[in-house]
Amino acid sequence: MKKLMGILMLGLGLVFASSYAHARQGILQIKGSDTLINLVQRLAEVYMEENPGSYIAVTGGGSGTGIAAIMNKKCDTANASRLMKPKEVAQATERGIDVGRVVIAMDGLSVITNPNNLIDRLSVAQLGSIFRGDITNWSEVGGLNRAITLYGMLYTHSHTPPLFQE
């Protein structure tokens, strides 16, 4: 655990090294991925404990929100739980923003169905079809004639639905 924390702190430190806008005001602003917010908040707390006088503000909003904030110089570091889109990379280049990437964690995704559902497995292709809306009934994947209802982060800035859609 200590080694993992050291690696994560190193990664966070490397990300911090690229900060400029708010750091001069004494507060490092980190914005972005809701997937990473708890981890980054804890890392920030540990960093501030070990470095008295340092101030780090961590907020979420989603990967896209964090990337937009860094593009508009509204934060020092953007957390993203996805790669930047080609359009975002092009914007950064146009604006002279040198973005780097430091992997600080890997996450996993899971799909949960009602225990009464007869389906016990779905392929990645079937999940993509469900999240795209091509498959809308459980009978299309071997289940009962019932509508599929999706719950979760479907209408937020989450990167999860597009991952399944692709």
UniProtKB/TrEMBL annotation:
The record ties this protein, via InterPro entries, to:
PBP_domain (IPR024370), Phosphate_ABC_transporter (IPR050811)
Keyword list (alphabetical) reads: Signal
Q: Known Pfam families for this protein?
A: PBP_like_2 (PF12849)
PBP domain ranges (all copies) = 24-150
Q: What's the protein here called?
A: Phosphate ABC transporter, periplasmic phosphate-binding protein PstS (TC 3.A.1.7.1)
Please name the source species: hydrothermal vent metagenome
